[in-house]
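Deliverable D2.4 — example input (C-alpha cells):
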C-alpha cells in the first residue's frame, strides 16, 4: 500500500507498522497533500499500539507538507488511540531541528534519530582523527587493489558507488585511474565527506561526487549502479545486513557488489611472531568488545552467497614487507597502535597496564617490519558477486 507523486513515495511496511517517506515533499500540489492526509488518517484508524513515521529517506519537506504532519500528529494525540514514533536521520540536515520539536505537540508522540548511536564505535570511526589511518591503509592497498578491481569488473564508463567511502581516497583514485563514467562516494562522517570533497576539488576530479549519507537508508535509486564498493566497513557494524540490503538494492542486474573484509587471523610476521599473534588476538578481542568483527574477511564468500549474488570472485590482498614500502607499512602500524591502545582503550576504559601490553605488541610488530631481514604480511579479503 503506497502513494506517490512526482518526486516522493510514501509506503507502508506492515511488519513494523511503519510509514516510509522517500524523496522530496517540496512543491507538492493540494490534491497530493489531501491524499497524504487521507492516507495517514486511514492508517491511524486501522492500527493499534504504535505507528512509526520514518523520514530517514526524505530529502525535503515543504512547510505545507510539515503542516499536514503537524495536523495529523495533533489529531492523533487528541484521539490518544496510538503512540506515534517519528524516526529521523542524523545526515538529513533538516530533520533533527524540525522533528525534535514535534513531540511537544501532544501526548504519545516520540522522536528518535535512528543513526545517532547506530554502532558502538561510531564516535571514534567518524572522527577526523581516523582519517590518517585510512589514508595509510589506502597507500598500501591501492597498488595491489587497482588490478584486483579490474579483475572484478570495474572498467571505464561504469556508474560506480563507493558506500562508506571514508575520506574518499579510493573513490578518487578510481575516478582518475579507472575512468568510470561517474563515481559517487557516500559516508556518514561529515569530516570524511568534507575531506573527500576538498580533495576532489583540489585535483579537479569531475567524475566524482561525495555525499553525506547513511548506508542503511541510501538516497540513491534502485538498480542505478554497475559496480558498488563497500571497503573495510561491514566489519564495524553490529547489524551489517541493514547495509548489505541497500548495497544490493542500488546495484543493476548484472552489476557487481565488491566488499573488502579485514581478517586479523591473517596478519603474521617474523621475528617476534608470538608477540605479533598475541597483539592481534588481543586487538581482535577488544574490537569485538566495541562491536567490530575484525575477522569478517573469511565470511565474505558466505555473505555474498547469502545476498543471492552469483559468479563470485575472491582475492587476497597481501600487503607485505617484500611488495610494499616498509616505512609506509610501519606508519600504518603506528596508526593502528594509537587507535587500538589509545582510542579503543579509552572507549573500553582499559587499564594503563592493558594499554601498555597492546602498545608493546605493536612495538614488536614495528621492530619486525623495520628489521632488515624481518618479514610481515597484512592480508585483507576482496570479494565480489554479480546481481542476477
Ligand atoms: C573503516 S572506515 C572505511 C572507509 C573506507 N571505505 C576505506 O576503506 O578507507 C568505515 C567508514 O564507514 C563510515 N560509516 C559508518 N557508518 C556509516 C553509515 N551508516 N553510512 C555510511 N557510512 C558509514 C564511517 O564514517 C567510516 O568512514
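Example output (designed residues):
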Amino acid at each position: 500500500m503506497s502513494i506517490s507523486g512526482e518526486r516522493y513515495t510514501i509506503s507502508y511496511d506492515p511488519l513494523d507498522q511503519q510509514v516510509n517517506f522517500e524523496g522530496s515533499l517540496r512543491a507538492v500540489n493540494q490534491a497530493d497533500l489531501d491524499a497524504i492526509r487521507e492516507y495517514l488518517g486511514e492508517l491511524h484508524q486501522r492500527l493499534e499500539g504504535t505507528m512509526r513515521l520514518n523520514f530517514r529517506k526524505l530529502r525535503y519537506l515543504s512547510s505545507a507538507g510539515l503542516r499536514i504532519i503537524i495536523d495529523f500528529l495533533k489529531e492523533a494525540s487528541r484521539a490518544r488511540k496510538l503512540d506515534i514514533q517519528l524516526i529521523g536521520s542524523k545526515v538529513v540536515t533538516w530533520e533533527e531541528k524540525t522533528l525534535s520539536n514535534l513531540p511537544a505537540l501532544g501526548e504519545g508522540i516520540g522522536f528518535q534519530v535512528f543513526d545517532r548511536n547506530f554502532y558502538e564505535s561510531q564516535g571514534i570511526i567518524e572522527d577526523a582523527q581516523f582519517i590518517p589511518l585510512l589514508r595509510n591503509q589506502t597507500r598500501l592497498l591501492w597498488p595491489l587493489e587497482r588490478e584486483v578491481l579490474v579483475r572484478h569488473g570495474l572498467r571505464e564508463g561504469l556508474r560506480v558507488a563507493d558506500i562508506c567511502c571514508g575520506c574518499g581516497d579510493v573513490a578518487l583514485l578510481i575516478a582518475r585511474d579507472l575512468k568510470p563514467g561517474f563515481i559517487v562516494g557516500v559516508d556518514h562522517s561529515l569530516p570524511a565527506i568534507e575531506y573527500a570533497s576538498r580533495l576532489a576539488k583540489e585535483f579537479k576530479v569531475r567524475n566524482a561526487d561525495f555525499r553525506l549519507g547513511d548506508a542503511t537508508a541510501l538516497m540513491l535509486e534502485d538498480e542505478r549502479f554497475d559496480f558498488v564498493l563497500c571497503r573495510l566497513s561491514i566489519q564495524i557494524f553490529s547489524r551489517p545486513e541493514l547495509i548489505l540490503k541497500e548495497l544490493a538494492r542500488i546495484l543493476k542486474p548484472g552489476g557487481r557488489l565488491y566488499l573488502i573484509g579485514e581478517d586479523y587471523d591473517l596478519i603474521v610476521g617474523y621475528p617476534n611472531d608470538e608477540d605479533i599473534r598475541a597483539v592481534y588476538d588481543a586487538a581482535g578481542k577488544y574490537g569485538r568488545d566495541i562491536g567490530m568483527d575484525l575477522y569478517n574477511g573469511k565470511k565474505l564468500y558466505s555473505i555474498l552467497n547469502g545476498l543471492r549474488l552469483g559468479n563470485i570472485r575472491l582475492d587476497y590482498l597481501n600487503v607485505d614487507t617484500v611488495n610494499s614500502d616498509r616505512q609506509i607499512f610501519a606508519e600504518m602500524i603506528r596508526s593502528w597502535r594509537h587507535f587500538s591502545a589509545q582510542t579503543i582503550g579509552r572507549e573500553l576504559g582499559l587499564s594503563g597496564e592493558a594499554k601498555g601490553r597492546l602498545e608493546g605488541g605493536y612495538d614488536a610488530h614495528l621492530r619486525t617490519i623495520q628489521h632488515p631481514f624481518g618479514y610481515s604480511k597484512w592480508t585483507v579479503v576482496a570479494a565480489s558477486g554479480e546481481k542476477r
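The CA atoms of residues 325 and 342 lie 26 Å apart.
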